[in-house]
Design goal:
The protein has helices spanning 43-47, 50-65, 86-90, 100-114, 159-164, 193-196, 198-216, 233-247, 272-275, 277-291, 302-306, 310-336, 358-370, 376-382, 424-439, 447-468; strands at residues 33-34, 40-41, 68-72, 116-123, 129-135, 140-144, 150-154, 171-173, 177-181, 223-226, 264-267, 344-348. It is α+β, with helices and mostly antiparallel strands and 469 residues long. The longest helix has 27 residues, at 310-336.
């Protein structure tokens, strides 16, 4: 059976032979940069350093957690997303292999390591985008044409990329590439982060290898075998090999050695530099974390968590580290997919990163409702609860009502102002008289009291007439 025949098997038939080369999850050893320690720094070696791996994955996961949505420009965050654009589908499923979280995780990790992240845009016959295929930045070269055109030479790595990019040329035009770039000095390619941080990464990598070799030698310092006799070169080599086979490695810790022919073991003591190994590793961790802007409390450093307020530290981390990443994604999507032409905008929601404890969240929601910033149903939606009847009314505090409103009962604007041509004092007297009348309590009409008043008036009139006569 030929190689191509393995791709055309009837449905339901499983062959024991592999249909292609096995896919590896390792990073290719490309674009290595030597450090002052003599170690080669590339994506694979850099990610083998625990601090680098933690910084990159923490930031990439936090960006991936911020779900994007496509909306009309100026629409509120809680409005219904716009689905009439081809990009709306890609924000849920960028390609047939990855979820959105996996896609962002890979792209953001590439951006943090190389300051460049590339994804090939596959389109249908009508030019609408259908898939985003991420490509390792070490496999991409940016080419410049004489007329200013930009092309991306993409080296296909693996059979999957060969199949997915088979209809595209080797040099792909820029309109079919989603290129996220960080700090750059030529507008085209971002400055390589791990190349800039090669010495800091090299020191951290060297310290880890030193500790590993220290443990491989039985967690003991080296020493010398002494004898008064003269040994030949072959005898010395054989003796050293036998000693290392007996004593080196964690499996040989505590084994008993039997020396003969006058041999003595003289152990060498740890130097001051060896005793400061842990302090050196701590400093190296802090140095590497600076390159990626990750605070030490995110790396679970106990001393840092003990002297900070976690909520304030998280807010500062989101403001200074994550928000610039989200802004980069939003502006690049708007540029590549021409969202401004359709009066659309993309928004990455970072509120999940700032979700506080329940008691604090409830207090914040209460202040929103009382301050008139949000309705009850809007706050319930943020907590994942269904709306309630009558909860869409925006409440206003009574003490913040405008002057002259029915709510406060105060005089309206312009009260006491003289009309055109009226003297000011007359207007003031009229205003005072009006206010006194308004303040006077209303009297209820009493028919019997009115009759008594008329009778008393009539009697007074009769008496007055009789006196006159």
């Amino acid at each position: 059976m030929g190689f191509l025949a393995t791709f055309h098997q009837p449905a339901g038939i499983i062959r024991s032979a592999a249909a292609g080369t096995p896919a590896q999850g390792l990073l290719p050893i490309l674009g290595s940069t030597p450090s002052a320690t003599g170690l080669q720094i590339n994506q694979a070696s850099a990610m083998s350093v625990s601090t680098v791996y933690a910084c990159v994955t923490i930031r990439a996961k936090d960006v991936a957690r911020c779900r994007p949505s496509l909306r009309k420009a100026g629409a509120p965050r809680d409005s219904k997303p716009f689905t009439g654009h081809p990009l709306a589908k890609l924000l849920r499923r960028p390609n047939r292999i990855q979820t959105w979280f996996e896609f962002v995780l890979q792209m953001q990790a590439a951006l943090l390591l190389r300051n460049n992240a590339y994804a090939v845009i596959l389109r249908d016959a009508n030019g609408r985008p259908t898939q985003l295929i991420p490509v390792n930045p070490d496999a991409v070269m940016v080419l410049e044409a004489v007329d200013g055109s930009i092309f991306y030479q993409v080296n296909r790595v693996g059979l999957f990329q060969l199949a997915m990019l088979r209809d595209l040329p080797v040099s792909i035009p820029e309109e079919d590439i989603l290129h996220l770039r960080g700090l750059t000095f030529n507008m085209l390619v971002g400055a390589n982060t791990i190349a800039l941080a090669r010495d800091s990464i090299g020191v951290a990598l060297g310290l880890e290898q030193q500790v590993a070799r220290f443990m491989a030698n039985g967690a003991r310092p080296s020493g010398v075998l002494q004898t008064a006799k003269t040994l030949s070169l072959d005898a010395a080599q054989r003796l050293r090999d036998q000693w290392e086979a007996l004593r080196s490695g964690l499996a040989n810790v505590g084994r008993t050695a039997i020396l003969e022919d006058g041999l003595e073991w003289k152990e060498m003591q740890l130097s001051g530099a060896d005793l400061q190994l842990l302090e050196q590793r701590k400093f190296s961790r802090e140095e590497v974390a600076l390159w990626w802007g990750v605070p030490l409390h995110k790396l679970n450093v106990p001393a840092e968590n003990a002297r900070i307020k976690v909520s304030d530290a998280e807010q500062n981390y989101v403001n200074t580290t994550i928000m610039p990443d989200l802004e980069l994604w939003e502006q690049k999507f708007a540029q590549v997919f021409a969202l401004d032409d359709d009066d659309l905008e993309i928004d990455f929601d970072e509120r999940n990163l700032l979700r506080a404890a329940e008691a604090e969240r409830v207090n914040v929601q209460r202040l929103k409702v009382m301050s008139g910033l949000a309705t009850q149903n809007e706050c319930r939606a943020e907590e994942g609860k269904p709306p309630k009847e009558g909860g869409d009314v925006l409440l206003h505090p009574v003490n913040l009502a405008a002057s002259g409103s029915d709510m406060s009962g105060t005089a309206g604007d312009g009260a006491g102002r003289p009309s055109d041509g009226e003297p000011a004092m007359k207007a003031v007297r009229h205003d005072r008289r009006t206010r006194s009348i308004m303040r006077a309590p209303a009297r209820r009409a009493d028919p019997s009291a009115a009759a008594r008043m008329r009778e008393a008036a009539g009697a007074s009139f009769v008496r007055a007439t009789q006196k006159a006569a």
